[in-house]
Write a structure and sequence with these properties.
The complex is a heterodimer of chains A (about 300) and B (about 290). Chain A has about 300 residues and is mainly α. Chain A has one domain. In chain A, about 70% of the residues lie in helices and about 0% in strands. Chain B is α/β, with parallel strands linked by helices and about 290 residues long. Chain B has two domains: about 200 residues, P-loop containing nucleotide triphosphate hydrolases (Rossmann fold, 3-Layer(aba) Sandwich); about 70 residues. The chains are: A mainly alpha (about 300), B alpha/beta (about 290). At the A-B interface, β1, α1 and α5 of A face β1, β5 and α3 of B. β1 of chain A pairs parallel with β1 of chain B, so a sheet runs across the interface.
C-alpha cells in the first residue's frame, strides 16, 4: 500500500479570523464569564450618581468669597477625583480577584478542555485576560466615573440655581478637561506600574494547583514573616511596599521634597510626571510583566483539567 | 491512502506509572476508529497527546503537524469533545455560537443555528439551566458546525440516557461523517456503537494490542461454540480465550481457517465486545 502523510489541508481555508479580531472577542468573553468586572463598578457609579440626585445638603467651606471662579474649578476637580477615586478603588478590588481566578476557574470547571478545542493560542488567551485587567476595566471605570460625576454635577448645578446649595458648583470646561486628562494619565501610570503585579497574579492563577487566591495573599505574608523571623531583615516587606506605592511617592516629590497639594493645585503641571514616567523600576516592571505573561502562557500550554 | 494520525513508540510516564508504553498506530483518512481499552489503559493519554494537551516521548504526526510544536495550526482542522459537561456553566447557547463564529475560521454559524433549532435548547439559556443531555446536544451542535478533518470524541455520551445516545450517534453518522473526515472515538459502551466503527484499536497498559479494520475481523477471528463434550478436542486447536455459556463453551480463535473449526460446532464472527473482553482478560489481574 502506498502511504504518505498529509502535510497541508486540502480543504478550503475558511473565513479569515484576524488575531486582533479574535483578541477583542476573547476580551468580551471575559466580561461574560466574570460579570463582577462590569457589574460592581457600574453599581457603585450608579449608586454615587443616585446619591447625588437625592442629596439635600452640601457642605463646602469657602476660604475666600472673592475667588468664586477659582473655587468652582477646585470643587469641580475635587469632586471629579473623589468619584474617580472610589470607582477606581472598587475596580482595583474586582480586578485583583479576577486576575487570580481567570486562569484557575477554567481548570476548576473543566471548561479549559472546551476552550482548548478551539484554534486559539495560549499566548492570545493570556494576553486577552491581561488586557482586560490592565486596560479594559480601568477604561470602563474611567467612563463610569466621568458619567456618574457629570450626572452628579448636573444635579448639584440645578440645586445651586434654585437654592439650598452654595453657588460654587458649576461646569468649568477647562478645569473639567484638565481633570479628565489628569485621571487618564494617572490611569496609564498605574497600569504600567501595576502590570508586573497583575501578570504575577495571573502566573499564580495558572500555576498553583489549588486555591491561588489564598496563596496569593498568604504567600507574600509568610515570606515577609519568615524573613523577619529567620534573617531579621525586611527586604520582602520593602519590595512589597515599594511596588504598592513607590511610583506615587515619585510623582508627588521633587528634588527630594514632597510637593504640597491643595485644592487649587494644577495637578497636571505641578506633579513630577517626568520623574515618574522615566523611573527605571517602572519600565523594569513592564519587562517583568512580559516575562510573567510568557511564563503563564507556557504553563497553560500543558495544563488540563487535572 | 493518507494517514491522518501516525504514531510511533508513544511513551508517557506519570511518576512510576507508564500511561503510554511504546504505542504505535496509524489512522487513515475517512475512517471511524474506536479506541478501546479498560480504565487506565492509556486511552485518554493517547488522545491528549494527539490533541497536544500533554507532553510525551516518541514520534507523532497529526494531519502532518507535530501536536507539541504546531498545536495552534493543528487545532484549525481538529475538533474534540472531551468527556461530557466541559462547557462552562455560565455560557449561554447564543454566546457559545457567537464565540465559536468569531474565533474559528471553519465554524458555520448558520449550520449551528439549524442544528440547535431542531433541539429544545433556547438560545438564551445558560448551560447551567440545561439538562445533561441538552448540554451534550449543544456541544455536538457546535462541533458539527466546524468543518474539521479530524474529530476526537472521548466518552461523548457518558451519563446520557439511551435516547440521547442513539440520537447523538445518528446525527454524527448521518449529518457529519463523510470520506473527507476521520472520527476517533473512545467509549465504554462498546456494544452500542460497534456497528459505527470502521476500525478498532485496542489499547492496554499503554500498548496497542489490536489494530484492525472491522471488515477484516471475520477473516482473522472466529468464535466457535461447542458442546461441553467436544470442548476438550476443540481446545487442542488453541483458542486464545474461552468461556462457558449455558453449559456450552464459546472459544475464540485467531488465524484459524473456518473449515478446520466448523466440524466442532457453530461458527460466527465475534462481536467487538466479545473480542475486547477476550483480549483484555489476559491482561487483567485475576
Amino acid at each position: 500500500m502506498n502511504t504518505e502523510t498529509t502535510s497541508t489541508a486540502p480543504a478550503a481555508p475558511g473565513r479569515p479570523v484576524t488575531q486582533a479580531g479574535a483578541l477583542l472577542v476573547m476580551m468580551r468573553r471575559e466580561f461574560w464569564e466574570h460579570r463582577a468586572l462590569w457589574l460592581v463598578p457600574t453599581l457603585f457609579a450608579g449608586f454615587m450618581a443616585a446619591a447625588a440626585l437625592v442629596s439635600t445638603r452640601a457642605s463646602i467651606s469657602i476660604d475666600d468669597a472673592d475667588r468664586v471662579h477659582a473655587d468652582r474649578a477646585m470643587v469641580l476637580n475635587v469632586s471629579q477625583d473623589a468619584f474617580a477615586g472610589i470607582i477606581f478603588a472598587v475596580a482595583a478590588v474586582v480586578v485583583s480577584f479576577y486576575v487570580l481566578d481567570c486562569l484557575y476557574a477554567e481548570r476548576k470547571d473543566r471548561s479549559i478542555l472546551f476552550w482548548k478545542s478551539l484554534p486559539v493560542s495560549d499566548g492570545l488567551t493570556v494576553l486577552s485576560k491581561f488586557l482586560v485587567a490592565i486596560l479594559a476595566v480601568p477604561l470602563l471605570a474611567f467612563v463610569l466615573a466621568t458619567v456618574s460625576h457629570l450626572i452628579a454635577l448636573i444635579a448639584w448645578s440645578v440645586r445651586a440655581r434654585y437654592g439650598g446649595f452654595p453657588d460654587l458648583i458649576g461646569f468649568e470646561p477647562v478645569a473639567w478637561v484638565r481633570g479628565e486628562a489628569f485621571l487618564l494619565v494617572i490611569m496609564l501610570l498605574g497600569a504600567l506600574w501595576y502590570a508586573p503585579v497583575v501578570a504575577a497574579c495571573m502566573l499564580m492563577s495558572v500555576w498553583i494547583k489549588r486555591a491561588p487566591l489564598l496563596w496569593a495573599f498568604l504567600g507574600p505574608f509568610l515570606l515577609w514573616l519568615g524573613e523577619i523571623i529567620v534573617f531579621r531583615t525586611h527586604y520582602v516587606g520593602s519590595v512589597l511596599q515599594y511596588r504598592a506605592a513607590g511610583i506615587w511617592r515619585e510623582l508627588f516629590s521633587r528634588n527630594g521634597h514632597e510637593i504640597s497639594i491643595n485644592g487649587n493645585s494644577h495637578l497636571l503641571s505641578d506633579l513630577n510626571w517626568g520623574a515618574a514616567f522615566t523611573n527605571a523600576n517602572l519600565w523594569l516592571g513592564v519587562v517583568a510583566a512580559g516575562l510573567f505573561l510568557y511564563a503563564a502562557a507556557r504553563v497553560r500550554r500543558y495544563r488540563d483539567d487535572t | 491512502m493518507t494517514a491522518v494520525i501516525e504514531a510511533r513508540a508513544l511513551a508517557k510516564r506519570y511518576g512510576a506509572k507508564r500511561a503510554l508504553d511504546g504505542a504505535s498506530f496509524r489512522i487513515e483518512s475517512g475512517r471511524i476508529v474506536g479506541l478501546i481499552g479498560p480504565n487506565g489503559a492509556g486511552k485518554t493519554t493517547a488522545l491528549k497527546a494527539i490533541l497536544g494537551l500533554t507532553s510525551f516521548d516518541g514520534e507523532l504526526k497529526v494531519l502532518g503537524f507535530d501536536p507539541r510544536t504546531q498545536r495552534d495550526e493543528l487545532m484549525k482542522q481538529v475538533c474534540f469533545m472531551a468527556d461530557v459537561a466541559v462547557l462552562p456553566r455560565w455560557l449561554r447557547a447564543r454566546q457559545a455560537v457567537e464565540y465559536c463564529r468569531d474565533v474559528h475560521p471553519r465554524f458555520d454559524e448558520q449550520r449551528a443555528r439549524e442544528i440547535l433549532g431542531k433541539t429544545e435548547i433556547p438560545m438564551n439559556a445558560r448551560v447551567r439551566e440545561l439538562s445533561k443531555g441538552m448540554v451534550t446536544q449543544l456541544h455536538l451542535a457546535l462541533i458539527l458546525a466546524i468543518d474539521a478533518r479530524l474529530l476526537v470524541l472521548d466518552e461523548p455520551t457518558l451519563g446520557l440516557d439511551i435516547l440521547y445516545r442513539r440520537r447523538f450517534y445518528d446525527t454524527l453518522l448521518n449529518d457529519y461523517f463523510d470520506k473527507e473526515r476521520t472520527i476517533l472515538l473512545t467509549t465504554h459502551q462498546v456494544e452500542e456503537v460497534e456497528n459505527l466503527f470502521t476500525d478498532v484499536l485496542f489499547i492496554s497498559h499503554g500498548q496497542v494490542v489490536l489494530d484492525t479494520p472491522v471488515e477484516n475481523l471475520g477473516d482473522r477471528f472466529l468464535q466457535l461454540t461447542v458442546n461441553a463434550d467436544a470442548a476438550a478436542r476443540a481446545r487442542a486447536l488453541k483458542p486464545f480465550y474461552e468461556r462457558e455459556v449455558f453449559g456450552r463453551v464459546a472459544m475464540l480463535f485467531e488465524n484459524r481457517p473456518a473449515a478446520e473449526l466448523a466440524p466442532y460446532g457453530e461458527l460466527r464472527t465475534p462481536t467487538i465486545a466479545d473480542l475486547f473482553v477476550a483480549k483484555m482478560q489476559g491482561t487483567l489481574p485475576a
